[in-house]
Design a protein that fits this description.
This protein is an alpha+beta fold. Helices cover 19% and strands 29% of the residues. The chain contains 12 helices and 36 strands. Strands 6, 7, 8, 9, 11, 12, 14, 15, 19 and 20 form a 10-stranded antiparallel β-sheet that branches. Helix 6 runs parallel beside helix 8, helix 9 runs parallel beside helix 10 and helix 10 packs parallel to helix 11. The relative contact order is 0.08. It is an enzyme of class 3 (hydrolase).
């Protein structure tokens, strides 16, 4: 097969089908730097002919050769924009259906397309495809964010058949690439071991990333990846695509290298046990697949996603975040009003904005004194909190801080009044033993009554306590023994459960945000068990991991940062790990800063340091939240790590550096070449978060040009005596 190279971008092969037309229709999906070109063949099938860097002359897209689906006598290898199953295609399909008459064949031909501009930056292209035999229609949507170089892609499937059809597989996106080689970076882990990266070269066959966990779907693998072309991309070099699926349930991503060494990517909801019936005139909208492409390495690609996410997806992404003190590791389930009142004072003394009351505040018949009981019974525990949540809110306010609270509204303990009253609300097989994670089971959010109940938990809290300033929303169990009494009673297919659960969750969150649009909420799921860009429409931040060991967090936060900006990442100072308080604090400052410590146990210097650190953080957090992130020294490949955040104006920056390995007894004397500054500006460097009684190794009166800092570099002097260093860099 011949491969055509245009400006070092990837081409794809076009195929033939069954319906003739005179001239091809060419549809460019453009951002500021990149383009995806779709084109019909002589029989009106839609394929991908070009993906990568945008050509300066768009008229040249028509010059890209269109090749037949049938080459060398081999049929069915094709670069379809949305591959159907059951007719000419023998590759992995994006869409597979069973028609009302039982037939499983499907073909899709181009009908029409249109592009509408939402504003100067955002455009939406819709492309209508139809089966020429059966009354099935698919509309492909490509939403482009021009300046950010981000594409959001989904499909809407509609049936006009008289009988219901069944969607066997229904992907969000189908892309096709040509390159010399392909390198996939994906992630694995489990509780407290999230976001472990693995890079592999893709070879012939299909590599699958997926989840079948239902709730807490990201526990073992998140729906995110990076894909490098020709060679592995670095931070600053190489062609790379970052992709993620905006879906809070089971997902599946397939990377198929075909017999011509071309790559087909199909991403969407996992069809596992999720055959979805579609009645006549009904539509099914798939979740968004979001991606960005860069020819300048992973750093630029991640900044694309960060800029997009802050502006268009994360709730209040261009705003700010509060610092907080959480009681969990200070008290666990053992607290009362007096203990909490003292913690309010500790929070005020520390200088944070908010106190967060964690698990254990509710249930009476089966008190929530451990994780084995009470979940689902959302009344204040009268023994612990005789005066209720309202009293705590007022006491916190009297102390001078705000009050937030933990909930886990999707779940239930079998030892609860809710379980006793509504066993039919619980996801469980009626004839099999119950199987628990953290002694609990999910509620059935496919059931509208359960949706109302879950919404009511939060609504009641806000109605009775309108000054609640923060919510931590947890989800600690996966779905075992999937079965819905509601779907059975309403004579709907059990295979709808996995999908309708997530749809039900979004209905609750949408209703909640309509009434309470601005209350900050943390998305938590036993750590990072549910992190995606559909959920983050409703949450201001997420909890990356229950593992708060600062050394481990450096690695986790590094990997999360490819896909999510720091404003969305919650990071707490705790007693985990062996590192000193300064190290733990410096690491937590790379996100939304919180504390989960016993403030009264801090010695005089530790308290003084912590108070000053909160002040320092408040002075620079907007740079961390809204600045461009540059990863400078990779902790996986070096004994130390370094990264920096730079304002859009290049006038201010914050540099974080850490010693992560110490085999030689010291750090590195090699200067770090900074990035993102203005070469023509002059800068001063100041060290932040100095521990009381120590002096900086940095000459704060020295002036450096941006050119010097980015070319000759700067040594933050990280070593065994200075294991973490935070620097503020400011233009003069």
């Amino acid at each position: 097969m011949y491969k055509h190279i245009f400006s070092s971008v990837f081409l794809a092969i076009i195929g033939t089908s069954s319906f003739a037309q005179n001239a091809p229709t060419i549809i460019p999906i453009e951002t500021r730097q990149n383009v995806l070109v779709l084109q019909t063949d002589k029989e009106n099938h839609l394929g991908i002919t070009y993906f990568g860097k945008k050509l300066s002359q768009a008229t040249e897209y028509k010059l890209i050769p269109s090749q037949s689906r049938q080459r060398d006598g081999n049929a069915g290898i094709y670069n379809s924009a949305y591959t159907p199953a059951g007719t000419w295609n023998v590759s992995e399909p994006a869409l597979q259906v069973t028609h009302g008459d039982g037939n499983k064949s499907l073909d899709l031909v181009y009908v029409s397309h249109s592009t509408a501009k939402e504003n100067d930056n955002v455009s939406l292209t819709s492309i209508v495809l139809k089966d020429p035999v059966y009354a099935v229609e698919v509309t492909l949507f490509y939403k482009t964010y021009f300046q950010e170089n981000v594409v959001e892609q989904w499909s809407v499937i509609k049936s006009e058949e008289k009988k219901p059809i069944t969607l066997e597989k229904y992907a969000s996106a189908n892309l096709y690439f040509i390159a010399k080689d392909y390198y996939l970076t994906h992630y694995n882990g489990t509780w407290a071991k999230e976001m472990n990266p693995e890079e592999e070269q893709l070879t012939a066959g299909i590599r699958v990333l997926d989840s079948k966990l239902g709730t807490r779907a990201n526990l073992y693998q998140p729906p995110t990846f990076s894909l490098s072309f020709d060679k592995p991309a670095t931070e600053t070099e190489g062609k790379v695509l970052l992709g993620t699926l905006a879906w809070s349930g089971n997902f599946k991503m397939e990377f198929e290298v075909d017999s011509y060494h071309n790559l087909r990517l199909i991403a969407g909801i996992n069809p596992y046990s999720s055959e979805y019936p579609l009645a006549s005139k009904q539509e099914f909208k798939t979740p968004s697949f979001i991606y960005t492409f860069s020819e300048n390495g992973k750093g630029e690609a991640s900044r694309n996603l960060h800029n997009w996410a802050r502006k268009y997806r994360i709730l209040d992404g261009e705003g700010t975040r509060m610092t907080l003190l959480n009681n969990w590791e200070a008290t666990y389930f053992d607290f009362n009003e007096a203990k909490l009142s003292e913690l309010f004072k500790d929070g005020k003394k520390l200088g944070v904005d908010l106190f967060l009351l964690d698990d254990g505040w509710f249930a009476n018949k089966y008190p929530r004194n451990s994780d084995g009981a009470g979940l689902g019974d959302w009344q204040e525990n009268v023994k612990k909190l005789p005066n209720g949540i309202g009293y705590l809110v007022k006491e916190a306010q009297k102390t001078g801080i705000k009050f937030g609270i933990w909930v886990e509204p999707e779940m239930v303990n079998p030892k609860s009044e809710l379980y006793e009253k509504h066993p039919d609300w619980v996801i469980k097989q009626p004839q099999r033993p119950e199987h628990y994670m953290r002694n609990q089971l999910p509620l059935d959010l496919s059931n509208p009554e359960v949706q109302d109940f879950v919404y009511g938990i939060l609504d009641k809290l806000f109605i009775e306590n309108p000054d609640i300033a923060y919510i931590k929303w947890d989800c600690n169990a996966t779905t075992f023994n999937p079965y819905s009494a509601y779907l059975e009673k309403s004579k709907q297919a059990q295979s709808k459960l996995y999908v309708d659960y997530v749809k039900g969750l979004y209905k609750v969150l949408e209703k909640l945000r309509t009434k309470y649009p601005k209350v900050p909420m943390m998305l938590c799921s036993g750590g990072g068990g549910r992190v995606d860009y559909e959920a983050l429409k409703y949450f201001t931040e997420f909890w990356p991991s229950d593992n708060t060991d600062p050394l481990e967090r450096i690695f986790m936060q590094w990997e999360y940062s490819y896909f999510f900006p720091s404003i969305a990442l919650s990071a707490h100072v705790t007693d985990w790990g062996k590192q000193p308080l300064k190290f733990r604090t410096d690491v937590a400052m790379m996100g939304r800063l919180g504390y989960d410590i016993v403030v009264s146990h801090l010695n005089e210097k530790d308290l003084q340091f912590s108070q000053q650190a909160v002040t320092n953080y408040n002075a620079v957090k907007d740079i961390i939240f809204q600045g461009d992130l540059f990863r400078l020294v990779d902790p996986k490949k070096n004994d130390y790590a370094a990264l920096m955040y730079v304002t859009k104006s290049k006038s201010k920056a914050v540099l974080f550096s850490y010693l992560v390995g110490n085999r030689n007894g010291d750090g590195s004397d090699t200067p770090i070449r900074l990035e993102g500054l203005d070469a023509s500006k002059n800068y001063k460097v100041k060290e932040l978060n100095l521990y009381p009684g120590t002096k900086s190794a940095i000459k704060e009166d020295q002036v450096y040009s941006g050119e010097y800092l980015m070319t000759a570099g700067f040594n933050p002097v990280v070593n065994a005596r200075r294991t973490s260093v935070v620097l503020e860099i400011e233009a003069m």
